[in-house]
């Protein structure tokens, strides 16, 4: 056995096809030139009738050797042929002239290719055959001339026969390079090593067989025994190679399917298509080519059904199908018996003995035999694999071929089913199950891809209202029906070319082609009008509000990096701005982005600001009426930002609260206030501190324990700590706040309702809440001197508070008249600019020293009284 490159001419690569054809012509010309030189160099031969019989026997020997060849794939388009051609070549070097051996070898090699139906590489292989014989005889003649009379007679033919596969191997490596199909150095060395070993074995067998037969009378039985053993080794070796190639082919098919699945996973998730269903057409063509090469078939046809409801699509490797079948969609497949075989096992059909309907199907395919195996999952038919006409037709398809195509079909069916499941899972992962629209991850992925081709695309954000009320009243199923109906209206209004997603709950987004702002504004208004139209759900008419915000890259600053997340974020900012301004539609403006960025910076820089002393606590004194004793202070947070300067609490506290950092802020203010109270106690002063807490703190079940720990740590009596809650915060969910408030009240801390009179509190709930005081909102106190209604409200709150046993605190007192009025009403405590503005810690101490007088109190404590 020896190895020789067997090159497949590239297809559909025009520059590469031209290069290969030019290279094939060059190989033929080199071979012919070499043959002329060798023919001139060799001694002349007088041809006789015996040479005819010798030539026929050599042709027969080369034909047998070629038919027993094994093809081993090296790279795509290049394979290596293992055959016995060195055996008849070695014998020919003994008994026949150069021209006769050359003619016999070329006839046998070209005939073998034609018999196998291989027409695209005849020219190249003919050149290789000529070069092999020319090299063998050139080496033989050189050996004879240089070593005349030295060494045995068989040495020259042995070396010449051995030189032939070496020359074709080196030429094959050059061919691999010419075709641009690189081969690793280790693989090239392995092939050359195999060639040397197998060429040596084949040459030795041919030489030994000739020498023993000619020189040893009766030696032919020994040759038969040796050939029998050699044949057995060949059969075993060919079987091992076949198994190895089958395993490699299965591995390659699996890798192609896996690689295509990874590529599909990287594509935008816009729906179920051919790629997401499994393998793209290019990969299927590569699989079909691999099966064809492995089976040595003239044609392999894959019929693949990507969708159970769609027709099969056809992929062909090898010779083309007749036009009526090679249309990419099998027409009349329901009536084609080869495409509706039951079961999933391999069927072998031959035209000569097939049933009439099968014979007609083979005739339509211009095939004499076929291996057919369905691709089935547990529930339905995925496709069909057909292999037509083995290239060596006199052998036909065998059991090993049926086993191989059956195993490959099983792998493909499993891979197809897995890819279909993966595609479904991926579709579900990127789509909203209720509406069928993209979800947020799916929208981000698909929109990112779309923005690359249309950088001026616009993102629209739609928020629906009142759906929570519908769900609370009628159940979530009704709310889901309204969401589905709204999704249909959005699709109908924006059109099928728009990419639409349900982000969450009642929020939708869409990516649209860029257009002028006024045109987009009109479209957004039309969309909103469609969404707020009454919804008729099972004989009920339901209403929903909607707000629309939109943005495009053209609206952004030049410094802004435009991506999907940025556009979604800015569209959300536009929606919030629309809600805040009471507008139905709002376009994003860069100024909104600056506000958003500033809030974001404040949130991210808050902890660092606390650690570096930018955030501090100021104190505003509270004075009792009519005694004017200083009872306590209200702790108020202040932030001096290095870039933005002094920040008002109304700017940064809501942002910190929305970010979930209000607990850290409350803890910081409370610690600072208790530290101050402890210092006053050490000086004999009994002054309380009031701290504002957020409604979010009431949602923390361990908040009372946190307060208790702080009181214990600083050694402050609980009655010197007042916790102030806004009326709206307490009354928003009194049932949830009530247990926490009761636990706080049990600690002994004072609970106060801040901004009383501005909310929507119920007197019944106010009676149930364990609060100790109410604070009249400053807006009423400001208007007491000029507005009789404000004066009446303040008087009513004072009377109400006292009737419920609560202390009443008035904030915002700035004039003596207001102080006197409150004193006359019986208000217990006042605070405001008339008393003092909020002061830093050092200024508060100076204020206390300058504006108060000390008088002895009970239990050796000192009372501070405000000077007139």
TrEMBL record:
- Where does the record place the EAL domain? 599-852
- By its UniProt entry, which SMART domains does this protein fall under? EAL, GAF, GGDEF
Keywords associated with the record: Membrane, Transmembrane, Transmembrane helix
Domain (GGDEF) spans: 455-590
Q: Name one Pfam family in it.
A: EAL
**What are the TM regions of this chain, as residue ranges?**
20-40, 52-70, 90-115, 122-143, 155-179, 191-212, 218-237
Query: Does the entry feature the keyword Membrane, yes or no?
Result: yes
* InterPro entries per record: Cyclic-di-GMP_PDE-like, EAL_dom, EAL_sf, GAF, GAF-like_dom_sf, GGDEF_dom, Nucleotide_cyclase, Rev_trsase/Diguanyl_cyclase
GO MF, one term, reads:
cyclic-guanylate-specific phosphodiesterase activity
Q: Which SUPFAM superfamilies match?
A: EAL domain-like (SSF141868), GAF domain-like (SSF55781), Nucleotide cyclase (SSF55073)
Entry annotated with the keyword Transferase: no
Task: Write down the Gene3D superfamilies for this protein, in alphabetical order.
Answer: 3.30.450.40, 3.30.70.270, EAL domain
Taxonomic superkingdom: Bacteria
Alphabetical list of PANTHER family matching this protein? CYCLIC DI-GMP PHOSPHODIESTERASE PDEF, SIGNALING PROTEIN YKOW
Q: What name does UniProt use for this protein?
A: Diguanylate phosphodiesterase
- Which species is this record about? Kibdelosporangium phytohabitans
